[in-house]
Known about the structure:
Layout: E1 2-7, E2 10-12, E3 18-26, E4 33-39, E5 46-52, E6 58-60, E7 68-73, E8 78-83, E9 92-99, E10 114-115, E11 119-123
Parallel strand pairs: 2-11
Antiparallel strand pairs: 1-3, 3-8, 4-5, 4-9, 5-6, 7-8, 9-10, 9-11
Amino acid sequence: QVQLVESGGGLVQPGGSLRLSCVVSGRTFNLNALSWFRSAPGKEREFVGAITWSHGATYYGDFVKGRFTISRDNAKNTMYLQMNSLKPDDTAVYYCAAVERYRGSYYYEASYDYWGQGTQVTVSS
């Protein structure tokens, strides 16, 4: 089993920045990748980005366009999402997800084995 705990959400003004964290515990040795998804009211859950646990390869959703960066610190069992140039459309609950065995894509919810509880990000003036 793997447990995921997100933190770092909050209220930020448009154009501002936030850094989210996802602390991983449990059976981390078996992880293939971690990802961020987000869910806004009235919208489907959306892929933000992923990072492979061993090699640190990253993948991003099309909307990111260089504004967000995913990183991880294996020694701390933590993944980060640095978000810059935030827009009101980025308002959502951000979820951390983990996959143990790669299923052909990181872009779909069904690919993941474990989920965190989410952290709210609100971008508003």
